[in-house]
Write a structure and sequence with these properties.
The protein is α/β, with parallel strands linked by helices. The strands form two sheets. An eight-stranded mixed β-sheet has the order 1-15-2-3-4-5-6-7. Helix 9 crosses helix 12. The structure holds zinc ion (2 copies). The site of one zinc ion has 5 residues, from loops.
C-alpha cells in the first residue's frame, strides 16, 4: 500500500503560486514519514510559461537519497522547495544520486544542464559521490517529414540527433567560458568529474527502426542499481521522438513506474505490471482538437497530429492502469496544464484502483514509515 501524503495540502492550495504551495508542502512534511516516496516536482507537459504548474520533473526519494526523472523548467527550485536537502547552507544537491531522462524533448530536459552548472554552487562540487545521468542515445536518423512542402533546413547536419552523452558534451563546450572561469578563479573541482552521463544502449536493429517501430516488444533494460533502488527502462512509442523511455524503480518498499511521454503502450503495461504506483502522462483530446478552427493549415494539422498520436488521452489512461494492475494511478505531464481538475478525474473510468491528479510538490509515500 502507499499513502498519499501532502495530497490534501496540495489540493487545498489549489492553483496558488508555487512559492505558496512550497511553504505549505514543507509545513505539511508528511512525506518525510516514509522511507521511500514519490515527489512530483513539476507536473506540466510542454511549455510552462502560461500555467500554474512547473515543468515536468519527478523524484523518487529513499531516506535522503534523491533520484530525478526528467528535468523540466524549474527543477532546481522545485528540488529546493521540496525540502530534500538535509544539510545546512547551500548544499541543496548533496543528496542527488542519479538523473533519468525519459526523452530529449526540451520540456523534459531544458534544466538538465542547469542542475550541473548551478548545482556546482549548491553542494555538487563537494558531493562524496559522482552523480550519474541516464537517457536516450543518438536517434540514428532524422525523423520523417510530416505533410507536404519543402523540407526545412537541418540543424547541426553532422550530428542532427545527438543523444544524452553528446548533448552533455556539447553543453560543456557551450559553457566553456563560465566553467573555465570558475575552475581557475575558485579552484572548484572540475565540473566534468562531478557527474557522468550515460546513453541507455539499444541493439542496432532497434535504432535502425526508429521511424517504423519506435517501441518494439522487448524485455526491460537494466539501467541502474545501488543499495536503495533498481531501475529498469523500456521503450515507449512517442513518435517521432526516439528513443523514448519509461522507467521502473523497484525498492524494498515497493515499485514506482514513470510512463514518460507515450501513447498507449504494451511495453509500458508490461513494465508497470503489479507496481504500487504508476505515474502516467495524460492529454485532454477535446482540448487538442479545439485548438484550431477548421480548415487546418499543415502546421496546425501537424500540431494536432503530434499531440494525439504520441500521447495518452484521459479516456485511455484508466484502462492502461487497469491492464497493468497497479494500485495507484498518478496523472502528471498534464496537457493542458490549466484544465479543471474535474476533467482529469474522468480518467477514473475503466480503472478500479485509486486515481490521483498530480500537483506540484505532492508527495506519495510507499509502505514503510520511518521509525
Ligand atoms: Zn513532454
Ligand atoms: Zn515529449
Amino acid at each position: 500500500m502507499c499513502d498519499v501524503v501532502g495530497q490534501v495540502q496540495a489540493l487545498a492550495a489549489g492553483y496558488s503560486r508555487p512559492e505558496a504551495r512550497a511553504s505549505r508542502g514543507a509545513a505539511a512534511g508528511g512525506g518525510e514519514r516514509h522511507r521511500t516516496r514519490l515527489v512530483l516536482l513539476g507536473t506540466a507537459g510542454g511549455p510552462v510559461w502560461y500555467g500554474h504548474r512547473e515543468g515536468i520533473a519527478s523524484a523518487v526519494v529513499v531516506d535522503d537519497d534523491v533520484y530525478l526523472v526528467d528535468c523540466g523548467e524549474g527543477v532546481g527550485q522545485q528540488y529546493r522547495r521540496a525540502g530534500f536537502a538535509p544539510f545546512e547552507g547551500r548544499q541543496t544537491l548533496r543528496g542527488l544520486r542519479a538523473i533519468f531522462l525519459t526523452h530529449l524533448h526540451s520540456d523534459h530536459c531544458v534544466d538538465y544542464f542547469n542542475l550541473w552548472l548551478l548545482g556546482w554552487f549548491n553542494g555538487m562540487a563537494w558531493n562524496p559521490h559522482v552523480v550519474h545521468a541516464y537517457g536516450p542515445g543518438n536517434r540514428g536518423s532524422l525523423p520523417p517529414l510530416f505533410g507536404a512542402g519543402p523540407a526545412p533546413p537541418v540543424e547541426n547536419p553532422d550530428n542532427p540527433a545527438p543523444g544524452t552523452v553528446e548533448m552533455t558534451r556539447f553543453l560543456l563546450q557551450a559553457y566553456a567560458a563560465d566553467i573555465n572561469d570558475r575552475m581557475r578563479d575558485d579552484r572548484r573541482p572540475a565540473l566534468e568529474t562531478r557527474f557522468e552521463a550515460h546513453d541507455i544502449p539499444l541493439p542496432p536493429a532497434i535504432v535502425a527502426g526508429a521511424n517504423s517501430d519506435p517501441a518494439p516488444d522487448m524485455d526491460p533494460i537494466e539501467v541502474y542499481e545501488d543499495e536503495n533502488v533498481e531501475v529498469r527502462a523500456i521503450l515507449v512509442p512517442h513518435p517521432p521522438t526516439f528513443p523514448s523511455f519509461a522507467y521502473r524503480f523497484d525498492s524494498a518498499d515497493g515499485s514506482i513506474v514513470f510512463s514518460g511521454d507515450t501513447t498507449v503502450s504494451p511495453n509500458l503495461i508490461k513494465l508497470a505490471r503489479g507496481a504500487e504506483v504508476l505515474v502516467h502522462e495524460v492529454i485532454d483530446a477535446a482540448w487538442a482538437e479545439s485548438r484550431f478552427e477548421p480548415p487546418l493549415d499543415p502546421a496546425q494539422e501537424a500540431a494536432v497530429n503530434h499531440l494525439l498520436s504520441s500521447h495518452t488521452t484521459i479516456e485511455q489512461v484508466g484502462d492502461v492502469a487497469e491492464r497493468a494492475g497497479v494500485e495507484t494511478l498518478v496523472l502528471n505531464h498534464l496537457v493542458p496544464a490549466d484544465n479543471p481538475r474535474e476533467r482529469w478525474l474522468e480518467a477514473q473510468e475503466g480503472f478500479s484502483g485509486r486515481l490521483v491528479v498530480g500537483e506540484d510538490l505532492m508527495q506519495i509515500g510507499l509502505r514503510q514509515r520511518r521509525g
